[in-house]
Recover the amino acids of this structure.
């Protein structure tokens, strides 16, 4: 099964696994779980199981119409972004650690060079956007110092992202993945 088909299939199956009727159907649920297991087991050891494109597709297909669903989606996005399950158990107000996000963007898999996978980079940044949501600004009655700290952290994050994207040399149609990553 090629990568695109695997991505599409996993996203559909994950949507099905969220459906209450499927969950309650003791005949269908095990079948879907078996299919997901087979797809996961079919991944070769040398394939990247942390595929940002697949993760992004999953996030985009998760429902987010309620605040609880949106919070779960944000937590999962940040867990994917940091490659760490810790955000899955954080409280809403502790999710958007702008300093930690800025530091993480300085790690090797976000450094733009000749080896950069531009599709993965774009997917990772889109995943971050889902995780950040509105950035959890301080409440209206917050101290002037708390607001200034938030604004400074936000400015540093914006500068880091801008610096990363200015390093992408957009050569036009010959390298469409670069162009797509810059967008």
């Amino acid at each position: 099964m090629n990568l695109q088909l695997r991505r599409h299939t996993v996203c559909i199956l994950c949507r099905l696994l969220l459906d209450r009727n499927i969950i309650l159907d003791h005949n269908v649920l095990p079948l879907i779980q078996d299919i997901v297991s087979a797809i996961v087991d079919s991944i070769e050891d040398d394939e990247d199981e942390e595929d940002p494109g697949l993760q992004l597709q999953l996030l985009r297909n998760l429902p987010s119409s309620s605040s609880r669903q949106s919070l779960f989606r944000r937590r999962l996005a940040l867990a994917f972004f940091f490659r760490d399950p810790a955000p899955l158990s954080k409280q809403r107000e502790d999710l958007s650690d702008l300093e930690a996000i800025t530091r993480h963007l300085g790690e090797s898999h976000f450094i733009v060079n000749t080896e950069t996978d531009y599709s993965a980079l774009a997917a990772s940044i889109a995943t971050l956007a889902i995780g950040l949501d509105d950035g959890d600004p301080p409440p209206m009655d917050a101290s002037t110092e708390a607001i200034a700290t938030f604004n400074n952290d936000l400015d540093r994050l914006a500068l880091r992202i801008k610096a990363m994207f200015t390093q992408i040399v957009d050569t036009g149609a010959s390298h469409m993945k670069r162009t797509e990553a810059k967008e």
